[in-house]
Write a structure and sequence with these properties.
The complex is a heterodimer.
Chain A lengths: L16 H22 L12 E2 L1 H8 L1 H24 L9 H20 L3 H4 L1 H12 L18 H15 L7 H22 L2 H6 L1 H10 L4 E3 L5 E3 L2 H6 L7 H20 L5 H30 L4 H4 L5 H28 L12 H30 L2 H28 L1
Antiparallel strand pairs in A: 1-3, 2-3
Chain B lengths: L7 H8 L5 H8 L31 E5 L4 H8 L4 H17 L4 H7 L5 E5 L2 E3 L19 E3 L4 E3 L3 H6 L5 E6 L5 E4 L7 E4 L6 E6 L4 E9 L4 E6 L2 E11 L4 E6 L2 E6 L2 E3 L4 E6 L17 E4 L2 E3 L3 E6 L4 E4 L2 E3 L3 E6 L14 E3 L2 E3 L7 H4 L27 E6 L5 E3 L2 E3 L4 E6 L22 E3 L2 E2 L12 E5 L3 E2 L2 E2 L6 E2 L19 E2 L4 H10 L24 H25 L3 H19 L8 H30 L6 H33 L10 H27 L1 H9 L5
Parallel strand pairs in B: 1-2, 2-7, 3-8, 6-9, 7-10, 8-10, 9-11, 10-12, 11-13, 12-14, 12-15, 13-16, 14-17, 15-18, 16-19, 17-20, 18-21, 19-22, 20-23, 21-24, 22-25, 23-26, 24-27, 25-28, 26-29, 27-30, 28-31, 29-33, 31-34
Antiparallel strand pairs in B: 4-5, 32-35
Helix pairs in contact in B: 1-2, 1-8, 3-4, 8-9, 9-10, 9-11, 9-13, 10-11, 11-12, 12-13
The chains are: A mainly alpha, B alpha/beta.
């Protein structure tokens, strides 16, 4: 399979691996200590924060812009489907695998980091649903039933797990028929969901929209509560996330998938069955570890609901791992997708970034992710907990994050 | 094999808090070793060391020579008259019925007990040199890839079918063969591979082999390679200028190296690897040794001697000098029969001036060039592995080794160095095996820092030990050492004259140093920053960095506690000042680890913490009493309870420091499985967090009314 996402080996780093790993753990630990001393009260203001960008808002929100982008995305999707169907089932010739794994899955992470929840705008399923609804003279937001609250993020969690399973576990992830089957089922399920519950279904049901939305909260560009696009701190973006059923699991699947991929790069897991079990175990381990730490925080802080309340602090960590894990892959696959779509015979430069720079970005992403996680958790803790237990309450999460940084960097270096 | 410091992964596993221990190991343990070939069976030990045989005693005599009479005359011109005459006669006879190439003579051997005489000259063995063709070019065998090279792992049958895929001269399955140069000295007969082959001379299943009086040189692996052979002698042979070894004997028994010389080798001069593991079930007493090495002079190599699984080797009366490391033995690499290494006996050797730092040739790119262009003949050596230059004798994992009555002097880093690699470094993952090495090693009767003539030539340290392992001991008159206090041996191996230790791990900072040093890579021309052995000094040293970081954290946390809680206590203030001095000193004196200074610094820190703890308990007690207002009883009780807990933890933390100081400066504490440094580290992390929680908590408590108002209505998350 060509889609082995090799990460940068540790020795490309300009510092010894030991320093990268201990430095990372120390950065998290010291951030925690510094927060405790220097950040005694909550400072984040969520959707109220940010410097509004009125011109950009007007441009981005204009119907012309939005429909142009939507239709462009839809047209590209159709083009990929057509070209994918025409060409032989071979990832060296057929652009479909590169487009799916390189552009849709990984590219979406980076695009969302840069511009916010872009998939909400570009999602061809949403566009199709909206278009058909309008043609039928109906409001796309109206479904047959109201969306029950308990559904929450669960469809996205399931969709994400299924996609990650196909990418990392299934027998032949590059197989064009397999990809076609997956996305046919995916489209049918989500269009049906939208017909049943209206376009709000996509908000929390469509795995790619949710991925884009969650990661997009780290973008410097964000939507304020008054609707304006604004420049704001990723911490405020994170702060806007509200607990909902399935949210923790969705975020944990994001985290677990990269961990699983790194571990299986070291251990050949053998069969699809053991791989499936392994992936589920990875997800379960992440959920259990996080929940245990968050529950312990709640015990110390004497508050309920901490598992949901601190979930947002995992998002920068997951984003850090995704960046570290997939950056090199993205650069290669984006080129491949373009070349294969255009049918050009241009050479693909597999090493667009120098190995040293790539390694620095990878390690930097993981450490930055954890430090942001610590800060987000700290702000939430001083808001939720009484001052006398606010710092102590964060200790379990801090320990988890230090261990995760160390483990993550070790996995990165070993991959 | 002597690839001594590929310890990165085991330390990496520790760095990852053990979680990734098994996950990280396989990837990072790409094997850098080259003798994986048939790492199978050791001989059954039924053979014997062969006796030297004169031509009269030989079953058959074969001669090998060149054809250029003028060149020959020139070569023997300086010989003693009778030897020259004898050579002339042999040359004349050789022109009639002799061979032009050594391999031809070897191939012509028909019976055991044959002597092959090599007349003075340079044997390039041109017919052996062409690249393999036909089936030999397409053997379907596993390829081992090293940094600058790759080669196939071949079976004995492959060598029989394709003798020159890897070997200039192949001696396969021939018994009791003697090959002897007829020159006045070993340098008169030269087998020169000119880097076209891995091995100059390979003897495989060649029981009773006797090699004498010639030189083999310029291979990409070994000048002389004896494998799977029971009974051999290497007598007055020179092995020089090889990418790796002068002499490699692997999976052998009844071996004797005598009067050999080795120099200019990128790994080691002499390598009795996987010598037959005949004493594995014995303790200190043994019946015999499988390989004897005596009278050898191994100099100007990366290592004079190396022995991965160099089991039951008796090395005596040798000269290991002017290498980067004089002698190294280890248990680091998988697939060597007989691991972990055990029962080597080194006595009456000269191990001195092993200080040459060849890593400059890695740094300046010399070692990037093809082997032939590196300048081995001018003294260049390209280190195949990372080792600490300036070391006399290094043991990276071994048991029941005895080092006695050697002269060890003039080694700038350390005379003897002992460290522990857990078994997973050599790809053995069973938990019970992880501590199966670096135990029961005895160092007695050695003369440190003085030549046999009595001239003072001190070592940097006489001993550097990572502190790990069971019942390792040193003579009590050892000079400067790390750690400062070593467990003391009695007069004989197995006897002790003080408490014995059995530590599971070395101290954290030491472990970090080993880890960083293990990142050495020749192929990447990578010399790890931070490794003291490879040149890091002062703040570059990773142990200094770690001490600095921990001192800063403990200092800041301690100052926070003092400022928030105890700044009005004069005792606590004075103690804190002393503690800060101790913390600063603690960082500065890390390189003085062979003195009592680190222990003094740790004592100051420990004393400060104990006083701080006591003062906290007193303050907490007093605070509880004064605050006894009815409305505030629960809160006050809680607050002073937390302070009391922290006070006790502070006393424990400080007490562990005092214990650590005793362990360092007075006697290594027996019975405990870990150095007090580990307990200090673990308690210290909790202490720093608690100190900050408490330090911050006080201020919050002071602003309690406002805080409670916010806390009562937490915003929904």
């Amino acid at each position: 399979m060509i889609f082995a996402h090799g990460t940068g080996p540790g020795h490309d780093l300009p510092v010894p691996l030991f320093h990268a790993i201990t430095g990372g753990a120390l950065a998290v630990f010291v951030s925690f200590l510094a927060m405790a001393v220097l950040w005694p009260e909550s400072r984040l203001r969520g959707a109220a924060a940010g410097r509004p960008l009125s011109v950009l808002t007007r441009f981005a929100d204009s119907a012309a812009t939005r429909w142009t982008l939507r239709l462009l995305a839809l047209a590209l999707t159709v083009a990929v489907i057509v070209r994918g169907a025409m060409l032989p089932d071979n990832a060296h010739v057929n652009p479909l695998p590169s487009v799916v794994y390189g552009v849709l899955w990984v590219g979406l992470v980076f695009a969302s980091l840069a511009f916010g929840p872009v998939w909400r705008l570009l999602n061809p399923l949403r566009t199709a649903h909206t278009g058909v609804s309008r043609m039928l003279g109906r409001n796309p937001r109206d479904g047959m039933w109201a969306l029950p609250r308990w559904i929450g993020y669960w469809p996205a969690a399931i969709g994400l797990t299924a996609f990650v399973w196909m990418e990392l576990v299934s027998f032949d992830p590059d197989s064009v028929p397999a990809l076609a089957r997956f996305f046919t089922v995916y489209a049918v399920v989500h269009l049906a969901g939208a017909v049943a519950f209206g376009s709000r279904w996509f908000d929390r049901g469509d795995a790619f929209e949710v991925l884009s939305d969650l990661i997009g909260r780290l973008a410097l560009l964000g939507r304020r509560s008054d609707g304006a696009l604004a420049l704001r701190s990723p911490l405020n973006g994170l702060d806007t996330l509200r607990p909902a059923p399935g949210l923790v699991v969705t975020i944990c699947v994001m985290l677990a998938s990269t961990a699983y991929d790194s571990v299986t790069a070291l251990w050949n897991y053998g069969t699809v069955r053991t791989g499936t079990i392994g992936l589920l175990i990875a997800v379960a381990v992440v959920i259990v570890l996080y929940s245990a730490a968050a529950k312990a925080a709640g015990l110390i802080g004497e508050r309920r609901g901490t598992v949901a309340a601190f979930a947002h602090s995992l998002i920068p960590i997951a984003a850090g791992y995704l960046v570290a894990h997939y950056l090199a892959f993205l650069l290669g696959e984006a080129q491949r997708a373009t070349v294969l779509m255009l049918g050009s015979d241009a050479q693909i430069n597999e090493q667009l970034l120098p190995a040293g720079l790539l390694a620095v970005i990878q390690v930097g992403a993981i450490i930055t992710g954890h430090v942001l996680g610590v800060i987000a958790a700290h702000d939430r803790a001083v808001r939720l907990f009484e001052p006398r237990v606010a710092v102590a309450g964060q200790v379990p999460l801090m320990v988890l994050m230090v261990v995760a940084t160390t483990t993550g960097l070790t996995l990165l270096a070993s991959g | 094999l002597a690839c001594v410091l590929r310890l990165r992964t085991f330390a990496g596993a520790f760095a990852a808090a053990g979680i990734m221990l098994t996950a990280a190991a396989p990837a990072a343990f790409a094997h850098p070793d080259r003798d994986l070939e048939r790492a199978g069976q050791l001989p059954d030990g039924s053979g014997a060391v062969p006796e030297y045989r004169s031509a009269d005693q030989a079953a058959d005599v074969l001669l090998v020579c060149g054809t250029d009479a003028a060149d020959f005359e020139e070569r023997i011109a300086a010989f003693p008259a009778d030897l020259a005459e004898q050579n002339r006669e042999q040359f004349a006879q050789c022109q009639d019925d002799g061979f032009r190439y050594i391999q031809e003579a070897v191939d012509a051997v028909t019976e055991p007990g044959t002597n092959i005489y090599l007349l003075p000259g340079v044997y390039r063995e041109e017919p052996s040199r062409p690249e393999p063709t036909g089936e030999c070019a397409n053997l379907d065998r596993e390829v081992y890839r090293g940094g600058h090279y790759q080669y196939q792992l071949l079976e004995f049958e492959d060598h029989v079918a394709c003798p020159h895929n890897q070997n200039l001269i192949a001696i396969l399955g021939i018994e009791d063969l003697q090959i002897e140069g007829t020159g006045a000295e070993a340098g008169d007969v030269i087998i020169d591979a000119e880097f076209t082959k891995l091995n100059g001379l390979r003897a495989d299943l060649a029981d009773g082999l006797y090699l004498k009086n010639f030189t083999a040189q310029q291979t990409t692996f070994n000048a002389i390679y004896v494998i799977a052979t029971d009974g051999f002698v290497i007598d007055d042979v020179i092995g020089r200028w090889n990418d790796e070894y002068g002499f490699l004997t692997f999976a052998v028994d009844h071996g004797l190296y005598t009067d050999c010389e080795a120099y200019g080798n990128g790994d080691s001069g002499v390598y009795p690897g996987s010598a037959s593991d005949i004493n594995k079930d014995w303790e200190y007493e043994v019946d015999r040794y499988s390989v004897e090495i005596t009278g050898c002079y191994s100099h100007h190599n990366l290592l004079g001697y190396s022995g991965t699984a160099g089991d039951s080797v008796w090395a005596h009366d040798n000269d290991f000098s002017e290498n980067s490391v004089g002698v190294a033995m280890d248990s680091l690499f998988p697939d060597h029969p007989g691991l972990p290494q055990n029962h080597a006996l080194f006595e009456n050797n000269l191990i001195y001036d092993n200080n040459v730092d060849y890593y400059d040739y890695v740094r300046d790119g010399t070692c990037e060039r093809p082997s032939a262009e590196r300048g081995y003949q001018d003294g260049v050596v390209c280190p195949a592995i990372g080792v600490p230059p300036g070391t006399g004798l290094l043991t990276a994992g071994g048991n029941y080794n005895v080092f006695r009555d050697n002269y060890v002097y003039g080694n700038d880093y350390a005379g003897y160095l002992l460290l522990h690699p857990p078994a997973f470094v050599r790809s053995e993952y069973s938990l019970t095996k992880q501590w199966d090495t670096s135990n029961h090693n005895t160092y007695i009767g050695n003369t440190f820092g003085e030549t046999p003539e009595g001239v003072s030539r001190p070592n940097g340290l006489d001993v550097w030990w990572d502190g790990q392992g069971t019942q390792n001991c040193w003579q009590s008159d050892t000079g400067e050492s790390v750690p400062l206090r070593l467990p003391a041996c009695g007069d004989e191996p197995g006897q002790f004259s003080g408490p014995q230790t059995a530590r599971l791990f070395s101290e954290p900072a030491t472990l970090a140093s080993l880890y960083v040093c293990g990142e050495y890579s020749l192929s990447g021309a990578h010399i790890p920053a931070g490794c003291e052995w490879l040149g890091a000094d002062g703040i570059e040293r990773v142990d200094v960095q770690l001490t600095l970081v921990s001192s800063v954290l403990v200092g800041l946390a301690g100052l926070l506690v003092w400022w928030r809680r105890l700044r009005h206590s004069r005792v606590a203030t004075i103690a804190t000042a002393v503690g800060v001095i101790g913390l600063i000193m603690n960082v500065i004196v890390v390189p003085q680890w062979h003195t009592v200074l680190p222990a003094i610094a740790i004592t100051l820190i420990g004393g400060w913490l104990v006083v701080l703890g006591v003062e906290l308990l007193r303050a907490g007690h007093g605070g509880g009493r004064t605050r006894g207002g009815a409305a505030d009883v629960i809160g006050a009780g809680r607050a002073s309870g937390r302070t009391r807990g922290f006070g006790w933890l502070t006393i424990v933390f400080g007490g562990l420091g005092l214990l650590h100081a005793i362990d360092k400066a007075i006697v290594m504490l027996p019975w405990i499985p870990l150095s007090p440094a580990w307990f200090r580290l673990l308690v210290g992390i909790v202490w720093v967090v608690w100190a900050v929680v408490l330090g911050v908590g006080r201020r919050s408590a002071e602003s309690e009314p406002a805080a409670t108002a916010v806390g009562a209505e937490p915003r929904p998350a």
